[in-house]
Each structure stands twice: as structure tokens, then as C-alpha cells.
Amino acid sequence: MTQQNPNETVAQHIANILRRHDVEFIFGQSLPSAVILAAEAIGIRQIAYRQENMGGAMADGYARVSGKVGVVAAQNGPAATLLVPPLAEALKASVPVVALVQDVERDQTDRNAFQDLDQIALFQSCTKWVRRVTVAERIDDYVDAAFTAATSGRAGPAALLLPADLLRSEARAPGVVRSRNLGHWPLDRIRPSDDALAEVASLIAVAKAPIIIAGGGVHCGGAVAELAGLQQEASLPVFTTNMGKGAVDEYHPLSAGVLGSMVGPRSLGRHSSALVEAADLVLLIGTRTNQNGTDNWRQIPRSATVVHIDVDPVEIGRNYESVRLVGDARETLAALRAALTRIDLTRRHADRARLEECIATCWKRFELDRQEVATSRSRPIRPERVMAELQDLLTDDVAVVADASYSSMWVLGQLRAPTSGMRFITPRGLAGLGWGVPLAIGAKVARPDKPVVAIVGDGGFAHSWAELETMVRMKLPITIVVLNNGILGFQRDAETVKFGSYTSACHFAEVDHTKLAEACGCPAVRVEDSSELAYHLQRGLEEGPLLIEVMTDPAAHPPLSLFAKMDEAA
């Protein structure tokens, strides 16, 4: 229950409400100052970012790993506008973040006050919910509403605008005393009807070639164990989307890895996509069926029956007409498993040996295709070699975070999850450059005793290298691997494929990232010989923090379908 003390300010009362919602950290820059001071006074720790567009990404990374709401704070005006990109990422990626944003004093609205802006209009496109509080008696209602919006249904960001004078004013007793903790997600657990589940169970039992494509909703819904049970009990092959990476153990004989747009030469998808093409039943779980996850909506056969499980009813049928199972991934999969116990699965089990052999052959062919680059001793170093060295160090304790663009693709396409539930955190909602480091900081705050390694390109790292100081100051030992190829790789390659040339922005001047790190107090090493990779990666994971700048081959790119014809002709 939120206790109210005599002479308590609204800011102090907000801090107490946050504590009721189990908030331990606020990613902020000391504004709104009244709230931050009150929060710190009762033990809520501020993780003070340096760049105003990084706090939202930190809160995002924290929420993805902790299972709790990420809270970010910002000043009105420019800091508020810089929250738009990370909140938009959280909206698209279904991550609960509550933004506490200072607003101008109530009597200054629409008078061209300093840093006044229509912040309701600003946040309407990038949040599920945005409100401005003007009455002290309603503060409990509005904070609870923000957390409810963030954690219920399809999770996402909510913004609460707090006028500066309101925060200093005396708190008033609310009309209704609130006591519930709304700070964990998903807030609600719903599942489809028994009849709908029985229908899908029957479809699975009689299908000739069913498959599962698991998305980020499996992680969001805490459905990893239920998915593993379904895979095993019904003998179903499982693919994942980019955001679903880690939802299943990729060494399980029925796990076929990430698919999506990674189907070019030297990819697993080049071989495993045949299973999708032959499918007559596709079970989608917690996926937006977006462009990258379906290779431009080409992968799911038109002749296949599609069953879609999603907590958001609007996503079902968006791109593929589907049998609808509206519900939380964990509860729906648990109920579906129960329904399958009442169905004869002889056909599924009879086909298991063939499927396992087929999937094993795909992995073997993939390993053979990439062996040359994954074991290469060339200089500059191939990114595939970096991933191969990191693979040997992966355990279920390690969280791997990647920046957008090629960094994400190297991680998602080259690493193999050694256990179900392992976290591979990538900004795939909007895929903005520069979010790898702040996502990693948020993940480390959520699990301070577990190793976090961030893979970033030199292009993306330039957006966020000031946060090295945050990492050092807040004593967050993260291993940061900077793949330095001196270019914006995807931009160069995509422009070359589309236009036969690329713009002058693609190449950078030389930057010594080790000196940047050392200037912030972070140990750093530049690696130009691939034989040194294993030692420094191990050192980073065990000792941290450590920045490892790897001088990588600018000609290398992930095996995306966009480049397939170019690669085949090479």
C-alpha cells in the first residue's frame, strides 16, 4: 500500500508509488529533479546516462531481461524529444517502459515558456498511453494507469507528463487507496477457448509437415519452457524470428535456427528454408510477421494453413490469414499442450527421425559452408571468426546484446543458443543505430551478477560511446566488442545492390576506439590477429569491463537475401 505522510510533496508521493511497483532503478539525468531526489532518498537508484536519447534504450534493455518495467526520466523540451526513438523501439518490440517526463508549470502552458512543447502530441505516436497530470489528488490513479498500460495486453511504453510546480506542491489524499504492485509483466494472463485449442490440436495431429515459427512474444510472455515442451511432445521443428532467438535450445535436434532474411550463401537458412517451403501447417507464436522475419513476406507458403498465437488480436491475420488463438504465449501453449494429450500424435512421432536427420543435415551443411571464414586467420579479421570464438564461451548465463544492422545479423545468424531461454537482445523494433551499448547497460543493471557482452559496429558505436563513462561510473562490467571495419557496411552494400554505387557518407576517418575507452577509465585492447580473440573475450567475460576493438574485414557482410545474387556471382 502506498503510504502518505503529512507534508509529503507530490514528487515524494510518486517515489513511494514507484517503490510499491517494485521499481529499483530510474534511468535518468536528474530531471525531474524533485522526483529523482525523492526516489534516491528512499533507495531507488538513478542510473545517470550521458546522452539524452540513451536512457530510454537502457530502460528497454532492463525491462527485457528483468521481467519488470523499465523506468526512464527526462526533462521537458529537448530531452523529451530525444525519448521518441527509444520509446518507438519499445513500442514496436513490445517492451514495457514508463517515461516520467517533466512538463512546464501549469500556469505557463501555451505561453511560450522555456522548453514548452505539446508533449502529448509528441508521444502519441510512440507510446501506448500518454497523459499529463494536473491534479495532486489523482497522482496515484495516473501512475498506476501508466504501469497498467505498459504491462497489459501487448506490452509497450507509456509516458506520464509531470508539471514542475505540481511536483513541488503538497500531496493530497487520494479518493481511493491503491495497494497493488503493477511493476512486473505480463500483467495479465489470458488464453483462447478450449474449442479453439482443440481445433488447433487436431490440425497439428493430422498435418503432413507442420512447423513452428517462434517470435519475441515467447520471451515476453515467459513461454520458453512451454515451447520446449511443445517441441518435444509433439515432435515439431522450431524456427525462430530475430527477436525469438534463444527461445529454444538450438542444439535440440528439432531446432532449425533463425530464418527470416538470412538465406544467402553461407547461411543456415539457405538449407533450412526448404522445411518452411514444404510446410502445410505453420504455427506462429508471438511474432509480428514483419518484413525481415519473413524475408519480405515470401517465406510462408500460400498453401499452408497458418495458426497464429498472439496476445495482440490485431496482429493475428495482419499479413497471413490465420486460425486465431488470442492469448498470452505461456498460458496458450500450456493449454495447447494439454489439448494435445487428448489427441493421437502417432503421425508426428513417426516423422520425427526424418525431421531430425533433415535438420542435422542443414546444420552440417551450414558449418561446412562457413568453415573457411569462421576459421580464417586473415587480416583484417572476418566477423564470422569473432562469432566462432565467442560461441565457445557461451553459457546460459551470458546475455549477448547487439547493435542494429550488421552487428545484429552476425549475432543472430552465426551464434547458436546452447540452451532455451538464453537472451540475445537486439533492437529489431525500429533497428536504430547506437542502441547496443545502452541496451547492454540496461541488461547488466537487471542481472549484475551475469556476464553481458555487446557486439557493436564502429558506425553504431559512435552514437553511444559517451555511455562508456556511464558504464565505468556505475560500475557495470560489460564486455564491448567493437567490429571496426571503417565503414557503414549495410548502407554501402545496400546502395551498391540497388544503385551500383554508394554515397560518400559510408567511409569514416580512422578512429582509435581503445583511446576513447581508456579516456573514460575502461580497459581496452585492439585486436588485429585472430589468434588473440579467445584470450581477450575470456578476459572480458571474467574480469570486465573491457572494450575489445577488432579490426574487421570491410568486405564482409552477413548472408542476407538482399545480397544473394551479388554473392553468388562473386
TrEMBL record:
Protein family according to the UniProt entry: Belongs to the TPP enzyme family.
Organism: Sinorhizobium alkalisoli
Organismal lineage: Bacteria, Pseudomonadati, Pseudomonadota, Alphaproteobacteria, Hyphomicrobiales
Matching Gene3D superfamilies: 3.40.50.970, TPP-binding domain
GO terms assigned for molecular function: acetolactate synthase activity; flavin adenine dinucleotide binding; magnesium ion binding; thiamine pyrophosphate binding
Annotated protein name in UniProt: Acetolactate synthase catalytic subunit
GO cellular component: acetolactate synthase complex
NCBIfam families xref list: PRK06112.1
CDD domains: TPP_enzymes, TPP_PYR_POX_like
